[in-house]
UniProtKB/TrEMBL annotation:
UniProt source species: Sesamum indicum (Oriental sesame)
Pfam families: Rhodanese (PF00581), Rhodanese_C (PF12368), UPF0176_N (PF17773)
Chain ranges of the Rhodanese domain: 230-333
Name of the protein: Rhodanese-like domain-containing protein 8, chloroplastic
Record Gene3D superfamilies: 3.30.70.100, Rhodanese-like domain
PANTHER family, per database record: RHODANESE-LIKE DOMAIN-CONTAINING PROTEIN 7-RELATED (PTHR43268:SF3), THIOSULFATE SULFURTRANSFERASE/RHODANESE-LIKE DOMAIN-CONTAINING PROTEIN 2 (PTHR43268)
Length: 444
């Protein structure tokens, strides 16, 4: 059986009373609506009842239908809204699913056991980590299994309204195997994150929906009127690694001088102004800090650190770049989105297929920022490769000529390394070393 999901797009159809409404809505619920009698809500079935926030996903069996109601925060009235276009997946169609939630889990080891039991007999590969602070999951599988796990998890009130990101897997599994276990830190930082107040929403950055983020982004970069004079009281902070920025980023965001999130130190310099730190010498009381990352979790974590440092006006892109691309397309974004799985890089059209050919053409022009690591010429493909030297394994962008000249390596020195792997064509990823070692032995 096929599964579907939809996005709440906040298109008001009519009000349930005569009081005017705005397009601002708050957390509410949606239910199956049977009839409307004299503009009064009457429910004959409560079969579908879930909590949701603007832009969140929900799933249902293919072929079923319902109306949606949202609670308006502007006047306290219920209004009917319409769902975005449904995305349908066949049972055996592979997808990649990402989500996280900060919530107290009293016995995470027991929680891990429950999740492992549910996974029995299901074809799911990926990384799913749990601890006392919540869950962080990225996995792939046929939609029947991948979405069944989401639905099972949402039956638990602690995870009932998680924002789930879904993208095409392209070619089978995006992860080699399933790692589902307890992990002390849901994301890695030098000092760990167990001491951070992640369970207190007031200590994290204020989340902005994709549409709210787009509005702020356009104000910062003056995209609408093509001015090139960003506001000085607002900083667009890319909370990712430098190599992620290299294949795609929001216009106006400085390239992070970071090779691993673990070592991120924006805003932590006390004695000197560091040119590579966008938050150095910033007015912590008056400056808006707009933070973004791939899916949102790194921003939530790092914003608590900045909050403790005294930064007051912190905002984060809810659901990260992937959620933004799905809702707003590539507006304000240049290039592709780096992802931490076998796909490595996804174009905006992977999240929003209806992006026009014209927009795709604009994206191609904007790729001029992406340079070959070796010769610094413009690359034709926004996708990293690993150095063929196993003992180097550097992740880098490379033009086709240098791939050929350096045999898939990042420098001439690596071409003479003892553990040299073959040049991989297309979008293939390297396997374990013994695969190539055994092939070499067989060829002798």
């Amino acid at each position: 059986m096929a599964f579907s999901y939809a996005l709440i797009t906040w298109n008001p159809l009519f009000s349930l009373n005569s009081t005017p409404t705005s397009k601002k809505y708050t957390t509410g619920s949606f239910q199956e609506l049977s009839t409307l009698n004299n503009r009064t809500q009457i429910f004959s079935s409560l079969q579908y009842k879930h909590n949701f926030c603007s832009g969140s996903r929900f799933s249902w069996k293919y072929g079923e239908s319902f109306n949606l109601l949202a609670f308006s925060s502007s006047n306290g009235n219920w209004v009917e809204v319409e769902a975005g276009a449904r995305k349908e997946y066949e049972d055996d169609e592979f997808i990649v699913v990402n989500f996280y939630r900060f919530v107290f889990i009293q016995d995470p080891e027991e929680e891990v056991s429950k999740h492992l039991s549910f996974m029995q007999g299901r074809d799911i590969h990926g990384r799913i980590y749990l601890n006392e602070q919540g869950i962080n999951a990225q996995y792939s599988g046929p939609s029947k299994d991948a979405l069944a796990y989401v639905e099972w998890l949402k039956e638990d009130h602690r995870f009932s309204d998680i924002l789930v990101q879904i993208s095409p897997a392209i070619s089978g599994h995006a992860f080699p195997k399933l790692k589902l276990r307890y992990k002390p830190s849901l994301v890695q930082l030098e000092e760990g994150i167990s001491h951070l107040p992640l369970l207190d929403p007031s200590m994290r950055a204020t989340p902005l929906t994709p549409s709210e983020w787009r509005t702020k982004l356009e104000a910062v970069n003056k995209i609408d009127n093509s001015l090139n004079t960003p506001k000085t009281n607002c900083i667009l902070l890319d909370v990712r690694n430098g190599y992620e920025w290299d294949v795609g980023h929001f216009r106006g965001a400085q390239r992070p001088d970071v090779d691993c999130f673990r070592s991120t130190s924006f805003g932590l310099s006390e004695t000197e102004v560091i040119a590579s730190d966008p938050l150095a010498n910033v007015d912590q009381e008056k400056t808006d800090i707009l933070m973004y990352c791939t899916g949102g979790i790194r921003c939530d974590v790092y914003s608590t650190i900045l909050r403790q440092q005294g930064f007051k006006r912190l905002y984060t892109l809810k659901g990260g770049v992937s959620h933004y691309l799905e809702n707003e397309g590539s507006v304000g974004w240049v290039g592709n989105l780096f992802v931490f799985d076998a796909r490595l890089s996804l174009p905006p059209s992977a999240y929003k297929p209806e992006i026009s050919a014209a927009a795709s053409g604009e994206q191609e022009v904007s790729h001029s920022f992406a340079k070959c690591y070796i010769c610094e010429s413009q690359v034709s493909e926004l996708r990293h490769r690993n150095c063929a030297n196993l003992d180097c394994n550097l992740l880098f962008l490379c033009c086709l000529k240098c791939v050929d000249d350096f045999r898939g390596c990042c420098c001439m020195k690596c071409t003479s390394a003892p553990r040299l792997r073959p040049v991989l064509p297309g979008h293939q990823r390297y396997q374990k070393w013994h695969t190539y070692r055994d092939l070499e032995l067989q060829s002798r």
